[in-house]
Write a sequence for this structure.
């Protein structure tokens, strides 16, 4: 399951990964704090009990959408997303344990590139609309989505490790994070199930309603055809 090689980001992409990973906590913390303070001010802090599960489920869904899209469309040579998004997912199916050798920047950097602009927009909207409790609730939800998606590849890494930490094993047993045997179903023929990799809660439902197959049919109406997956999964 190991390739024995190490993929290197381009200098510019590496700069984005490092800088946004550094900025993420300085945006996530204030966004969550200000939004919670607003909810407390409007006497609706109880809504956090709804926002947390909504954010976690939404994060799982986002991880599934991104995973399915990268597995299914375009190629490693596609401009912008080919090398940074498509290639890592395709190589992962050939060398699934390579993720176990990745450091924090490689694990979380790509997601931070997307999360930082989203959280920046949240802070701007909180400043622009200080009297909106509904906005504060949505920012809490978005903040939870952001932190869960940034952590998703760490959960994914744990699912492939031969001997994860006791904390990782406990989280896996409680199904708060991705569980190895659950995720293994994605690495088993026909390789088109269980795309969600935050905790996998949504996988049974999405499999049952054939969500991703229906999405492929829908996008096919606009001329988007899935790439040939056979080569990418042959050795998984």
């Amino acid at each position: 399951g190991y390739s024995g090689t190490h993929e290197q980001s381009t200098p510019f992409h590496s700069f984005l990964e490092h800088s946004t990973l550094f900025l993420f906590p300085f945006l996530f913390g204030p966004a969550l704090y200000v939004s919670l303070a607003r909810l407390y001010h409007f006497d609706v802090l109880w809504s956090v009990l709804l926002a947390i599960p909504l954010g976690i489920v939404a994060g799982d869904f986002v991880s599934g959408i991104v995973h399915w899209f990268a597995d299914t469309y375009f190629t490693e040579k596609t401009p912008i997303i080919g090398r940074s998004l498509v290639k890592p997912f395709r190589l992962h199916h050939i060398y699934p344990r390579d993720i176990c050798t990745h450091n924090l920047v490689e694990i979380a950097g790509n997601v931070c590139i997307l999360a930082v602009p989203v959280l920046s927009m949240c802070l701007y909207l909180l400043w622009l609309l200080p009297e909106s409790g509904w906005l504060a609730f949505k920012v809490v939800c978005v903040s939870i989505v952001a932190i869960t998606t940034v952590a998703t590849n760490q959960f994914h890494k744990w699912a492939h490790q031969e001997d994860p930490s006791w904390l990782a094993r406990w989280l896996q047993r409680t199904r708060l994070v991705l569980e190895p045997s659950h995720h293994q179903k994605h690495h088993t023929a026909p390789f088109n199930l269980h795309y969600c990799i935050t905790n996998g809660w949504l996988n049974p439902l999405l499999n049952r309603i054939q969500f991703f197959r229906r999405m492929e049919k829908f996008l096919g109406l606009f001329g988007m055809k899935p790439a040939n997956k056979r080569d990418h999964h042959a050795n998984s």
